[in-house]
Structure formats: structure tokens, C-alpha cells
Design a protein that fits this description.
Elements lengths: L2 H9 L10 H11 L6 E5 L5 H9 L4 E6 L2 H10 L7 E5 L9 E7 L7 H8 L3 E14 L5 H6 L7 E2 H10 L2 E9 L2 H17 L5 H20 L3 E10 L5
Parallel strand pairs: 1-2, 1-4, 2-3, 4-5, 5-6
Antiparallel strand pairs: 5-8, 7-8
Helix pairs in contact: 1-9, 8-9
């Protein structure tokens, strides 16, 4: 088993691939003023937890999900099959979009291209008056101890002001933000812990290493969960401001 195969074995069939709750989606939709029929995208949709929520709430919208991992696309497609043709999921690059979209949702995936770079790439895919909601790792205090260890793989992490500066550099303005902490992370890690329990003991070295990495990540979060957060921001292009 390769390291990538081991990682996806640990993450297989999880309800979501990052912290979040349905309430986060509802908050963003309300702030963004999304209610009428339109075209909506979940960028980096993973296994489809938020995609499903968008479809449940936006009854008349055309909704799409895109992810670069075939396994997640398959899982998300099965999850939203009950909505019929109104919701579709495809494999692809979430920064190479045609649109136009009235609302783009992106939970915990914009850091891959970078906040500024990703938002710039989406400008041409947004309809007039469209908004974007995305969550991004953010520091709420000093980068030290368990917090520093937890974010070691993301040296670009910054505080809320730093994220806002990246938004501004892309030519957008922040309409509001909400912190994603506590229960939203438990909703991600609790199913992972159950998945790990079903995989142990692992005899494959790569799988054993992947399990160890996941357990270490969860342990660091539990040590410093009050200081580990995403910020969920709703933003829009500055030239769309009214």
C-alpha cells in the first residue's frame, strides 16, 4: 500500500473531510442573501456533506460539486443522487471554473491554491452580485506548543487580519466572518476515530503510519482545541459592492 492509498483508507467513508456543521452553511447563505433559484458550486466538495446541505436548503437552485479526488466524487455523487439532475458532481480543478455561479461555497479547501490566488481565479466564474463563502485555518493566539505542532504542515497560516488582507489582495471585501471551532471539529474527528478503531491493528506499514499520523493530529487538537480554528468568511468582489 502506498502512503496515498493508506491516507485514503483512513479517510474512506467519512461523512466529511474537514470541520464544519450544517449551521455554518445556513449562516453563510443567510449573510450572502442566497435564497432565489440560481447556480451554486461547492468547490472541493469532498464526500459531499455540505453539498447535501446546500441541496436540501436551496430547493430550486442548480447545484454542482467539484473535487479533484475521484473517490470523493463517487461518494458525493451517491450522497446527492436523491436530488436527481438538479445536483451534479464532477472531478476537476476547482480553480478552473466556467460558471457563472451565484454562490461558491468552499469548506477548508481554498488554502490549496491560496486564498488570494483562488479568489482571483474565481472572479471570471462569478455572476454579477455573486458571493463566496470559504473557511480557512486561522490563528486565534500565539503559534506555540500544540498549536504550532498542529499547524506545522501549513506554515502560511495567519490570523484573521491576515486572512482579510489576502481577501483584499484578491479584490474582494469581507461581508462577515464566523469562527469554526469545538463541535464542528468533533463532527470531523469522531467518525475518524471510529474508522481508525475498525482498522486496527494494521499490519501494512503505510497504513500503520497513516493511522499514527491521524491519531497524533486528533490528540494535538484535543490538547489545544480552544485555540485551533477555521474562520468562515463570506466575501464578494469589490466592484459588486452596493
Amino acid at each position: 500500500m502506498t502512503p496515498d492509498e493508506a491516507f485514503f483508507t483512513v479517510h474512506a467513508d467519512l461523512p466529511r473531510e474537514g470541520p464544519g456543521l450544517p449551521a455554518d452553511v445556513l449562516w453563510a447563505l443567510e449573510l450572502a442573501g442566497v435564497s432565489a433559484p440560481g447556480r451554486v458550486l461547492d468547490a472541493g466538495c469532498g464526500p459531499g456533506a455540505d453539498l447535501e446541505m446546500l441541496a436540501e436548503v436551496l430547493h430550486e437552485a442548480r447545484i454542482e460539486g467539484v473535487d479533484g479526488v475521484a473517490g470523493f466524487v463517487a461518494q458525493a455523487s451517491a450522497r446527492v443522487a436523491r436530488f436527481g439532475d438538479r445536483v451534479r458532481v464532477f472531478e476537476g480543478d476547482m480553480t478552473a471554473l466556467s460558471g457563472p455561479y451565484d454562490f461558491i461555497w468552499c469548506a477548508g479547501a481554498l488554502y490549496y491554491p491560496g486564498v488570494t490566488e483562488g479568489l482571483r481565479a474565481w472572479r471570471g466564474a462569478l455572476a454579477r452580485g455573486a458571493t463566496v463563502a470559504f473557511s480557512e485555518p486561522v490563528l486565534t493566539g500565539p503559534l506555540e506548543g500544540a498549536v504550532m505542532e498542529f499547524w506545522a504542515g501549513y506554515p502560511e497560516i495567519t490570523n484573521l487580519d491576515g486572512v482579510a488582507a489576502r481577501v483584499q489582495a484578491a479584490g474582494y471585501e469581507v461581508l462577515g466572518h464566523r469562527m469554526v471551532q469545538g463541535a464542528a471539529w468533533e463532527a470531523y474527528y469522531a467518525p475518524m476515530e471510529a474508522r481508525i478503531a475498525g482498522l486496527k491493528p494494521a499490519t501494512d506499514p503505510a497504513l500503520a503510519a497513516a493511522i499514527e499520523d491521524a491519531e497524533r493530529e486528533i490528540a494535538l487538537w484535543r490538547q489545544a482545541q480552544g485555540a485551533i480554528a477555521y474562520a468562515l468568511l463570506v466575501v464578494r468582489p469589490v466592484d459588486e459592492a452596493s
